[in-house]
Design a protein that fits this description.
The chain contains 17 helices and no strands. By secondary structure, it is mainly α. The radius of gyration is 22 Å and the shape is globular.
Length: 502
């Protein structure tokens, strides 16, 4: 721990040309996309992994959700360390560990070994992602930051939507037995190239300092237990009759943990030391509302792709590669819309996000209609069209919201603020996926013996009903935030992020 009178090392302004800034930016975005791909492309490999190792349903669940868990637990401490020291150094450490863990996943001799490697891979992703957000926050100011986050949102949208397609393609190339290993092998050359570019192109972002690193050890412990208590019950929700109901008691530990964490952090900050999470960040309404909105939205988005992929594979019998291709239209359209959204957010502000969420909500309804009302041979095409429609809305949600959320955050807290936002998204993903999957699978269990396709219609419909509810909550938050901004007299022009110190 640092002495209470020792200030944290100063973060300097980065004297880079525009060309060098954008080179560094694309390295960051490429690596962020690589980590997000591993959230979605593994989903289509679960049947192959189950066949290869005879993995239990719990192991399969943890291979996906364990990555999310360790990713989320690592984000905030790593963001705080990056803010105090070199974001470049932590970025390289995280990327190196991610590449090594990918090798371990690809060579895994058993399901247990693969699970452990995935947990390490999640830790690595959690180390590098806050540095990406912090570097973007520091490299760009004003309207240029909106453009940067617009492109960032476009790449994240492409990664989320293309993950199942890429995973299915690699399985098709590698074969049904070992094709799933290609999902991890592809990370190796990409990781090594990104590592070389990071060492060469990323700037140093902080001054050398002899001060000790200030990391609240007790706060980290309380924070970790609290996040684990929240995510654990959802991570182990499969919808099967064998789910243990006692896991929900952990939510009581979560409530106690939140209260304890707030009390400890206030006391720690009052002593003159640097808290793990500066609680004053949540007094900034743009950050607070944007973080909640993103968490709820990311509870819905990955669930949509997972449910659709499961319905197409299990209900209609499509091969993984074709089931994944249904989301390509979403990826392409959302990428273009996200890029434009990052530019238009300076003019339209939160209104742009509201419109986007309305379109996404309508897109969820179109997906269910396509599944239930169209002949099976036309269903994939109809769902692909609905995905294109929803993709436009998704594109003008993610990047504008990211820009608005961090608009008033000082650069010195860019890493930890970004990591709190990413943590909210990871928690949202874990909870949303668990709710949607439990509704999907519980319907299958409860309606065994009925007409197969009708049962899958019901399962998909109930799962997507949860998705629609999550999008509706995000829409409510966006409307309330828009109303508060107008009440305060804050116009879209005030959101053009022309604050050099932000």
């Amino acid at each position: 721990m640092s002495d209470a009178t020792t200030p944290p090392p100063a973060t300097r302004s980065i004297p880079l040309t525009s060309q060098k800034k954008w080179r560094a930016y694309w390295v960051c975005v490429a690596v962020a996309s690589l980590t997000i791909l591993d959230l979605s492309k593994v989903n289509v490999a679960l049947p192959s992994i189950e066949a290869a190792f005879g993995a239990s349903s719990t192991e399969l669940q943890l291979i996906v959700s364990g990555y999310v868990l360790t990713f989320g637990l690592t984000l905030v401490p790593a963001g705080r360390l990056g803010d105090q020291r070199s974001r470049k150094t932590f970025f390289i450490v995280g990327l190196s560990l991610f590449t090594l863990a990918s090798i371990a996943c690809a060579l895994a001799p058993s399901g247990t070994f693969l699970l452990i490697a995935r947990l390490v891979q999640g830790i690595a992703a959690g180390i590098q992602m806050p540095q990406v957000i912090g570097l973007i926050q520091q490299l760009f100011q004003g309207a240029e930051r909106g453009k940067a986050f617009g492109l960032f949102g476009a790449m994240i949208g492409i990664s989320t939507a293309f993950g199942p397609t890429l995973g299915g393609l690699l399985i098709a190339i590698g074969g049904p037995d070992d094709g799933w290993r290609g999902i991890f092998w592809i990370n190796i050359p990409l990781g090594l190239i990104a590592l070389a570019l990071a060492i060469w192109l990323l700037p140093q972002t902080s001054m050398r300092s002899t001060a000790k690193v200030s990391l609240d050890g007790v706060g980290v412990l309380i924070f970790g237990v609290t996040v684990l208590a929240l995510m654990w019950p959802f991570l182990f929700t499969t919808g099967a009759p064998t789910d243990d109901p006692t896991r929900w008691w952990l939510l009581g530990v979560f409530v106690i943990g939140v209260a304890g964490f707030i009390l400890w952090e206030r006391r720690y900050a009052a002593s003159g030391r640097q808290a793990l999470v500066p609680l004053e960040l949540f007094r900034i309404s743009s950050f607070r509302n944007g973080t909640v909105l993103a968490a709820v939205y990311f509870a819905a988005l990955p669930s949509t792709f997972l449910l659709t992929t499961l319905y197409l594979q299990q209900g209609l019998g499509l091969e993984p590669v074709f089931a994944g291709m249904v989301g390509i239209g979403f990826a392409l359209v959302s990428a273009v819309a996200s890029w434009r959204g990052g530019i238009l957010v300076a003019k339209y502000g939160r209104s742009l996000v509201v419109v986007g969420l309305v379109i996404v909500l309508a897109g969820a309804g179109l997906l269910v209609a396509a599944a239930v009302l169209t002949p099976p041979e036309l269903t994939p095409w109809a769902m692909a069209a609905a995905m294109v429609f929803a993709g436009f809305g998704g594109g003008i949600v993610i990047s504008p919201n990211q820009t608005l959320t961090l608009a008033d955050i000082p650069v010195r807290d860019g890493g930890v603020a970004g990591s709190v936002g990413q943590l909210g998204q990871r928690i949202g993903t874990a909870i949303g996926t668990a709710i949607a999957l439990s509704l999907f699978y519980s319907t299958l269990y409860n309606e065994k013996g009925g007409d197969n396709l009708t049962v899958y219609h019901h399962a998909y419909g109930f799962g997507m009903l949860a998705v629609a509810g999550m999008v509706a909550i995000a829409l409510l938050v966006a409307v309330l935030d828009l109303g508060a901004r107008r009440h305060d007299g804050r116009t879209a022009a005030d959101d053009d992020l022309a604050q050099p110190g932000a």
